[in-house]
Recover the amino acids of this structure.
């Protein structure tokens, strides 16, 4: 069975039922005239890389290159620790520095040694250098071509302040599929942590040019399969897993195979990042059905910026800071400074920031939740979702206020922790 | 059709268009009249060990590598991170391109890779295996006639002892962590010099054996009078007792003389530190102690951890640990790889090189201890920056008494790591026809390296 068959030819009288709200009668959903179905094999924040080589080199996006690694000794000294204390805190031989969870005392560098991860305003903005270039990938979310970046293909009005704020941070910066963050999260996805499928359905005779198209994003509990070269294999089957949270349905049209939103929608996708929830307000898509059967492009919208910050904190602040070369409070300040949308209206607090996710998807068979047949339309499956669908904790340890506390540790981190060991401690427990 | 079998023979056939082979156990017809040497005069014992190091070797996101030779088969070129294997290259086979397959289970970072290699299945939970590690099967097959069935060693100087050897998947072996503890275990109380001319049975061992024999009837009575759960607990307990009895029997027999056995002097305690230099020195010292223990026929099976999956090692004077560097160091645009990570990987491999040389310098018959051993060395990950479980580096070192056609590079395009695990088990004579489960289940050893 070819996946690209027109659904109407296969299922001429299939009727699905739209889930209804309380007290509403269920409305029948007609099978679409055609469908295209995909599995997302790669997704990452759309971060245009302005350098010609490397992953950190200076470029048009970040003229000084990727933000350099902070001098952690200086950071600690600036926060009020002595040089000796700072050096001891960063010493791998220090028993309070966990090789797995990092140095918890790094959290306590705010005013009066407040925890800067949960109280970033307790310290001044360390200053994360953002993107200064004019080119960005993404979508025109507000319809205003006079404000925003220019796309690599010359379209104006691209709204992507997430990129503007964080595009020079090492974890996000790099050529397509090569930034460290994208490599990490996509490897996890491709190894089975989650699966996202896309259904595109239309009412016209020509899928490439159709004014009545709907795009659906769903999760599947079926894992992707790798081929012999480690690439995701095409044309495997994935059953939609009805989920009360993760789902997105967007109205669109196609023109020459390009799928463009015709109206915004509020959706929730699975984030390829520590935030896990990619909530997008006024979301849009700009995707292209390619001749080889794949699908590439963007889904974007305005996302709550504070959730992004908390995602990084809850991934263990001391670990994230040293691995990604960032002072987390600077991420907080940068996101807040560049936030550009308020759900309350133009005068409201800007709690959201424009964002785009770059998507690369392969043709796949997307099946109904019971696996009995291919989907023949885009519809919501939320009403079929289990009442409780908890996602297991990402980490096999408990993070509290951005750090992992070892209850058996002799010395606990905190505002009043004694940093240097007593002079009579053993040789390997003293600064040297 | 007539067949001719020797101790190196495998039963070979075809299964579903694939070549399969099954090891032949050590049969009396292969041995001399005393059963302690092969009819052709060579010594019988083949030793097996696992050698583990954390954080893989260096790949690049664009497909480059610092360790995978371009040439396959014999005569592979020495890649930068394999430089330390040069002195024993002809005794080491390199396996690249093999991967752990999760069958939908997520990649538990620094765990799924080696758990898959050892147990044959990607685990559901970090900290546990979903089955026993295969070294225990080998120990059951070849480790019963020595004083210690297996010796577990952790040279990593980590804060907690590390072992990946397990019979239950839940509890792991308690390793020796210093040269002093190893010396005490092997050459301390209870050691009997196999080359001593005035050997006598140790009265204390005879006493222990008689005590265990005396309670044998009570053991059986106790088993009969308890519930199923307790029977399982008692069975596990009495299994360990039986193993102890077997070891006591071994110690009450006059040991065969070992020309290669040299009793070392007792080492001194050294400061604990996870610096690269300290861990390498500890590895070398413990490798030396182990090699002498093997030469003195105290054990035939071992598991050696150089560094754990989340390696704690660091370069003295630096503030970053190796693990952190693998993740945070960007790929150098001109070099095409992570230079500091690669440098540290080279140091890790130097420790493996040191380890193998320690076995190779001990002469044993016409060859060396390494020639009569098979060491499966492997890591938890391929490209450590992203915790990849593709292209996990694996090596088989030693000639396994002539069964291993060593010195080859075998490249796979994504087959399961369990093929190498199965091959290792068959090379040392474990009665195993298949290994692993799900997509990692295999009955196909790598026949190219089997003599």
């Amino acid at each position: 069975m070819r996946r690209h068959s027109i659904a109407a030819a296969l299922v001429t009288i299939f009727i699905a039922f739209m889930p209804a709200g309380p007290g509403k009668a269920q409305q029948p959903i007609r099978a679409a005239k055609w469908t295209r179905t995909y599995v997302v094999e790669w997704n990452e924040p759309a971060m245009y890389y302005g350098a010609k080589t490397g992953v950190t080199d200076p470029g048009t996006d970040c003229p000084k290159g990727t933000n350099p690694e902070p001098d952690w000794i200086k950071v600690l000294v600036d926060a009020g620790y002595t040089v000796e204390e700072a050096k001891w805190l960063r010493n791998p031989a220090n028993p309070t520095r966990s090789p797995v969870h990092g140095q918890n005392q790094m959290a306590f560098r705010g005013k009066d040694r407040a925890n800067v991860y949960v109280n970033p305003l307790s310290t001044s903005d360390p200053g994360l250098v953002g993107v200064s270039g004019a080119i960005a990938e993404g979508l025109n979310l507000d319809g205003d071509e006079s404000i925003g970046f220019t796309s690599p293909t010359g379209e104006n009005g691209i709204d992507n302040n997430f990129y503007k704020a964080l595009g020079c941070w090492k974890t996000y910066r790099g050529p397509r599929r090569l930034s460290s963050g994208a490599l990490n999260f996509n490897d996890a996805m491709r190894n089975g942590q989650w699966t996202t499928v896309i259904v595109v359905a239309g009412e016209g005779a020509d899928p490439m040019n159709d004014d009545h198209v709907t795009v659906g994003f769903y999760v599947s509990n079926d894992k992707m399969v790798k081929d012999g070269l480690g690439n995701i294999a095409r044309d495997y089957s994935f059953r939609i897993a009805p989920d009360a949270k993760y789902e997105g349905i967007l109205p669109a049209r196609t023109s020459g195979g390009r799928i463009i939103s015709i109206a915004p929608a509020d959706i929730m996708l699975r984030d390829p990042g520590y935030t896990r929830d990619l909530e997008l307000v006024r979301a849009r898509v700009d995707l292209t059905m390619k001749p080889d059967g794949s699908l590439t492009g963007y889904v974007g919208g305005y996302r709550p910026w504070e959730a992004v910050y908390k995602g990084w904190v809850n991934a263990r602040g001391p670990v994230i800071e040293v691995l990604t070369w960032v002072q987390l409070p600077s991420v907080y300040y940068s996101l807040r400074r560049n936030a550009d949308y308020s759900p309350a209206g133009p005068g409201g607090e800007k709690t959201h920031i424009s964002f785009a996710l770059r998507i690369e998807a392969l043709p796949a068979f997307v099946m109904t939740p019971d696996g009995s047949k291919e989907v023949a339309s885009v519809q919501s499956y939320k009403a079929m979702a289990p009442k409780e669908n908890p996602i297991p904790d990402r980490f096999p340890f408990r993070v509290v206020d951005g750090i992992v506390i070892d209850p058996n540790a002799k010395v606990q981190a905190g505002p009043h922790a004694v940093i240097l060991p007593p002079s009579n401690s053993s040789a390997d427990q003293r600064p040297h | 059709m007539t067949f001719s079998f020797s101790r190196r023979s495998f039963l070979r056939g075809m299964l579903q268009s694939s070549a399969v082979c099954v090891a032949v156990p050590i049969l009396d017809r292969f041995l001399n009249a005393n059963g302690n040497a092969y009819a052709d005069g060579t010594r019988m014992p083949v030793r097996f060990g696992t050698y583990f190091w954390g954080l893989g070797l260096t790949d690049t996101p664009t497909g480059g590598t610092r360790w995978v030779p371009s040439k396959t088969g014999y005569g592979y070129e020495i890649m930068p991170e394999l430089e330390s294997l040069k002195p024993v290259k002809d005794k080491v086979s390199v396996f690249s391109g093999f991967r752990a397959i999760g069958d939908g289970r997520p990649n538990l970072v620094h765990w799924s890779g080696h758990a898959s290699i050892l147990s044959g299945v990607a685990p559901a939970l970090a900290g546990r295996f979903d089955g026993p590690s295969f070294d225990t099967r080998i120990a059951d097959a070849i480790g019963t006639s020595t004083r210690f069935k297996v010796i577990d060693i952790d040279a990593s100087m980590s804060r907690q002892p590390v072992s990946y050897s397990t019979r239950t998947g839940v509890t792991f072996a308690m390793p020796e962590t210093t040269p002093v503890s190893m010396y005490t275990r092997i050459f301390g109380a209870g050691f009997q010099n196999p080359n001593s001319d005035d050997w006598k049975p140790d009265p204390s061992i005879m006493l222990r054996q008689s005590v265990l024999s005396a309670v044998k009837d009570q053991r059986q009575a106790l088993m009969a009078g308890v519930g199923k759960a307790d029977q399982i607990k008692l069975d596990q307990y009495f299994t360990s007792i039986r193993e102890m009895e077997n070891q006591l029997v071994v110690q009450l027999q006059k040991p065969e003389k070992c020309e290669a056995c040299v009793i070392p002097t007792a080492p001194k305690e050294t400061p604990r530190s996870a610096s690269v230099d300290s861990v390498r020195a500890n590895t070398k010292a413990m490798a030396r102690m182990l090699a002498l223990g093997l030469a003195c026929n105290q054990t035939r099976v071992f598991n050696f951890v150089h560094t754990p999956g989340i390696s704690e090692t660091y370069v003295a004077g630096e503030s970053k640990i190796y693990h952190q560097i693998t993740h945070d160091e960007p790929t150098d645009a001109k070099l095409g790889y992570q230079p500091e990570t690669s440098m540290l990987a080279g140091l890790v491999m130097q420790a493996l090189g040191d380890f193998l040389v320690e076995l190779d310098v001990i002469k044993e018959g016409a060859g060396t201890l390494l020639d009569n051993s098979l060491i499966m060395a492997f890591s938890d990950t391929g490209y450590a920056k992203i915790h990849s479980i593709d292209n996990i580096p694996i090596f088989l070192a030693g000639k396994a008494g002539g069964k291993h056609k060593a010195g080859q590079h075998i490249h796979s395009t994504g087959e399961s790591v369990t093929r190498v695990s199965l091959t290792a088990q068959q090379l040392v004579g474990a009665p195993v026809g298949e290994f692993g489960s799900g997509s990692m289940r295999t009955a196909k050893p790598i026949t190219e390296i089997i003599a």
In short: The first strand of chain A starts at residue 15 and ends at 18. The two ends of chain A are 69 Å apart (CA to CA). Residues 63 and 133 of chain A are 8 Å apart (CA to CA).
